[in-house]
Amino acid sequence: MELRWEDRQRAFQAKVIADNDIPLDLDVRPYRTFVGAATGQPPPAGSRFERAMLVLIGGAVITGVLVLFAPRPLVALVAGLAGGMAVFAGLAGPDPRTPHVTHEPLVALYAAQASVGEAPECVTAIAADEIDRLGTEGFGTVVGTVRPGGTVGLFVDEYLVWARTPPRGSRKGDPAFGEL
Fold this sequence. Notes:
The structure is a single chain. About 35% of the residues lie in helices and about 20% in strands. By secondary structure, it is an alpha+beta fold. A six-stranded antiparallel β-sheet has the order 3-2-1-4-5-6. Strand 4 (about 135-145) and strand 5 form a beta hairpin.
């Protein structure tokens, strides 16, 4: 049975809170809070018309090539299938993918020996009230694995901040270390 990230994170949180005898990898690292998207946006989906035209053009090209080499009944079957798929694509509902929130509080964790201009090692969402508590930037003790998809927590003073989404790697637009 494969555990989802949420299950691994909850188990990690319970282990950190409940068991004081386990050796944890503690590392003091710089962090920075900002507002952005914790996960990437899905690519834009085409409209119904665009999807139908794509299927029609693809079907026409395939049918045109088959006319040269295949028997006519097969060409008619492929053309009929392409037309049916174009109707289905034109009538299909809107894009089922839900848009991601692009304005949520995030924390970027940098390498322990980060230099100015270095990209964060991972970025994850935090609760809205935690962004005020942590401030814009600082140093905190990181517990867990600082990598995309890892389980991680951040101690700042006596306060523990948990990742709310799977940590992701650095992306364009994430603040670099030491950037204002």
